[in-house]
Write a structure and sequence with these properties.
- By secondary structure, this protein is mainly alpha-helical.
- It has a domain at about 70-140.
- It contains six helices and four strands.
- The chain has a two-stranded parallel ribbon with strand order 1-2. A two-stranded parallel ribbon has the order 3-4.
- Helix 1 links the parallel strand 1 and strand 2.
- Helix 5 packs across helix 6.
- The longest helix has 16 residues, at about 70-85.
- The radius of gyration is 17 Å and the shape is globular.
Length: about 200
């Protein structure tokens, strides 16, 4: 499940299509929601995306935080899971090399799982016990890169950038790019995606 929510880095949707096709998923749903209606984030509004921050430092919640985004995403996933009689939802959040997002934390995921099992017909009737899985939650970015490599992930078809150029090249300076580059460097691997010409990768 991929979300087109009015994000400025909408090239991630095309990357999701590429990844889904490469993995041969049974169904890839793209959900349209317009979170630009109320803004509140540099990813859905006009505020500048922060560049060249020290990603190893502790920061307050950044302007790239999208209000309630993961709650909205997980709620849609919960609805789809119930219709499929599925008991497991997987989400790619990470609590270590992240930039202060409150909805990427273990306590949040546990609370959502509890709520999910109280909020659905299947949960109340006892026909479905839903579990939220976050396999990347406690891995460093280097650990994520290494795990992906061991599983045969083709990183050249992925993207992470919050502020890509018009042709989809990563900026190399936003938090997402800096964390990605740090992860590849620490894993001892080159990052195969395209960055804007001014960035040395």
């Amino acid at each position: 499940m991929t979300f087109r929510y009015g994000q400025r880095h909408a090239c991630e949707i095309e990357a999701a299509h590429r990844v889904a096709a490469a993995q041969g998923v049974a169904a890839h749903v793209v959900v349209d929601i317009d979170l630009r209606q109320w803004g509140g984030s540099a990813l859905t509004g006009d505020d500048a995306v922060p560049k060249d921050r020290d990603v190893s430092a502790t920061h307050d919640i950044p302007v790239t935080y999208v209000p309630a985004r993961n709650t909205i995403f997980l709620s849609f996933a919960l609805a789809w899971a119930e219709t499929l009689d599925a008991t497991d939802i997987f989400v790619g959040v990470n609590a270590l090399d992240y930039s202060g997002y409150p909805d990427c934390r273990p306590d949040y995921l546990r609370a959502f799982e509890t709520m999910a099992n109280l909020a659905t017909r299947a949960g109340v009737e006892g026909t479905q016990r839903l579990s939220i899985h976050a396999p990347l939650l406690h891995l460093t970015k280097a650990g994520i890169i290494a795990l992906g490599q061991s599983l045969g992930v083709d990183y050249s078809i992925t993207t992470s950038c919050y502020d890509p150029s018009s042709d989809g090249a990563a900026c190399g300076h936003c938090d997402a790019c800096l964390l990605r580059l740090k992860g590849f460097a620490e894993a001892g691997m080159p990052d195969p995606i395209a960055y804007v010409e001014a960035r040395e990768t």
